[in-house]
Design brief:
40% of the residues lie in helices and 16% in strands. The protein is built from 17 helices and 11 strands. It has helices at 10-23, 35-43, 46-49, 63-66, 69-79, 102-107, 118-127, 144-156, 171-180, 192-198, 205-210, 221-237, 256-265, 295-298, 314-319, 342-345, 350-358; strands at 28-32, 54-58, 84-88, 112-114, 132-137, 162-166, 187-190, 213-216, 242-244, 266-273, 277-286. The radius of gyration is 21 Å and the shape is globular. Bound molecules: iron/sulfur cluster. Iron/sulfur cluster binds at residues 312-314, 317, 324, 327, 329-330, 334, 340-341, 343-344, 351.
């Protein structure tokens, strides 16, 4: 049975839209911090269904978009080193940085292989014992447990030639940075997949420290509209809190097994985010006992280069201060076919989603 079907029912959508129109008596700005929500919101045309007083904006929820150029430079430098194979998810390939990209370097002969999971990268290491395989580990709490399991698996399989280069990040410090940076947000649509791992407790600081409510949402139109309605009610009641709309997937305690494996292998570190710079305590690096698998330690990064001048406003879009339409390159100098910035590369990026679903209307 397709459970999602009932969350796409037209009748339920219409009822929710009526309730939203009745209850939206003020102006509201709600931010989603999940690339899956960005795609869902635009693909279902939700901004166009809502009253004009409700503004949905995207935050730093697309893992490819927030990944730093220095991480890409490091990966590209590794791919040029003899004896190293770089294994990456495909959506990192086209992110531009310093006049090149993993895709361009791969076309020029660099040792870069696209994988669909860390298990494929482990198998690559098992089949190529004469090579060192470096897996580019990106993503939030959703993917970090899988990377942690992969590192443990490499140890069990005796794969001393397997390494990870970690740009893993955790979400709450970035949400704090959004608010402390002055972005005017009345509520957050919190990520469903991250929350399925972490549970709902990680967002308590938003109502407690900032008086901002949040709702953990699913990904279907009924989920998103229900979450918007729940946020409107929190604002109207002046009673911000942490609510779970996505109860079919998220438990308050999350997934303790996944969290434990993540904590076993990773320690919290500072991490650089596009649009924000370094956010304290927002990254995950391997603990000292796993450092032999840490490509960042075993193969040090190349010297930092001067950032390339660009009109790209991806950073401001990730902070929620601008929208894709504000960018002078949007749709002309930057398209999904020829992206000028990270937010246009990833299918979960705000510029990509806005271009794909809004431009075609
Ligand atoms: S449209 Fe392209 S250049 Fe402009 S902000 Fe988005 S990704 Fe950057």
């Amino acid at each position: 049975m397709d459970i999602s079907k009932e969350f796409r029912e037209r009748g339920r959508v219409d009822i929710l839209l009526r309730q939203i129109r009745q209850e939206a008596t003020e102006k509201y700005i709600f931010m989603e911090v999940c690339g899956g929500h960005t795609t869902a919101i635009h693909s279902y045309g939700i901004p166009g269904l809502l009253p004009g007083s409700i503004n949905l904006i995207s935050g730093p929820g697309c893992p490819v978009c927030v990944t730093s150029e220095s991480f890409l430079d490091h990966a590209i430098a590794l791919s040029a080193m003899p004896g190293i194979l770089v294994a990456t998810f495909g959506d990192l390939l086209r992110v531009p940085g310093g006049g090149t990209s993993l895709e361009k370097e791969k076309a020029a002969g660099a040792s870069i292989i696209v994988v669909y999971s860390i298990n494929e990268a482990l198998d690559l290491a098992a089949k190529n014992k004469d090579k060192m395989v470096v897996f580019l580990a990106i993503g939030f709490e959703t993917t970090a447990p899988g990377t942690a399991a992969g590192v443990l698996d490499a140890g069990k399989r005796g794969l001393a030639n397997f390494f990870i280069l970690s740009a893993h990040k955790i979400m709450p410090p970035a949400m704090r940075a959004v608010v402390e940076g002055g972005t005017n947000v009345n509520g957050f649509i919190c990520p469903g997949h991250v929350s399925a791992i972490t549970g709902s407790g990680i967002y308590g600081f938003l109502p407690d420290d900032f008086g901002i409510g949040c709702v953990i949402s699913g990904f279907e139109p009924v989920d998103i509209l229900q979450s918007v309605l729940m946020l409107i009610r929190q604002v109207n009641r002046k009673d911000p809190g942490v609510e779970v709309q996505y109860t079919r997937a998220v438990r308050p305690e999350g997934n303790p097994k996944a969290m434990n494996i993540m904590k076993q292998v990773f320690k919290v570190s500072d991490q650089w985010w596009r649009g924000f710079g370094t956010i304290p305590g927002s990254g995950l690096q391997l603990k000292p006992e796993y450092e032999k698998s840490d490509a960042g330690k075993v193969f040090p990064a190349p010297p930092q280069r001067q950032p390339v001048e660009s009109l790209c406003m991806c950073g401001s879009i990730l902070r929620g201060t601008h929208t894709p339409a504000d960018c002078p390159l949007f749709g002309t100098g930057c398209t999904p076919a020829d992206p000028a910035g990270a937010c246009m590369v990833s299918a979960e990026g705000a510029c990509h989603a806005f271009h794909k679903y809004t431009m075609s209307l």
